[in-house]
Amino acid sequence: MNYVKTLSVVALFLGISQINAQKKTDTKKTEPKKEAVKQKPADNPTKCTNIKEGTFLRINYPKNLWYMTIKDNVQTEYYNDGKEYVKSSLVFLDDCNYKAVVIDVKGNDRIKVDDVFTNKVIATRDSYIKIQSQIAGDKYDFILVKVK
Prior knowledge:
The chain is α+β, with helices and mostly antiparallel strands. The chain has two domains: 1-30; 48-146. It has one helix spanning 2-30; strands at residues 54-58, 66-71, 74-79, 84-92, 97-106, 116-125, 128-135, 138-146. The longest helix has 29 residues, at 2-30. The termini are far apart. Residues 24-45 are annotated as: Disordered. Keywords: Signal. Residues 1-21 form the signal peptide.
């Protein structure tokens, strides 16, 4: 009879250890593998002069909805396949800070001639430029990509 009791106890411990082993294996299967995505750091120092000339797109907008050109301190933002625009004269206070004074508007009721936007280049990374723009106390952050 002792032999049967001993076998029963051994079988019970083997069963429990098998259940624990399966639990440990199952938790490993359900946990997703975590891989670190390496993101390139922002330029240091910030390459503010990237904004002084070129063609720019917003990262969230297709080109037919919005794009911008800057040449000879004149910034032109094109909307609606270029049918509407806002043209501004740029006055650089330093490499990273500038004012955009609106000199011409077509098809935009919210922006008027002589409106002044105060802009600051916050960060750059390769051809990406993060800008903070302020008008009448309202601040807007947006990211541009320089395409040429």
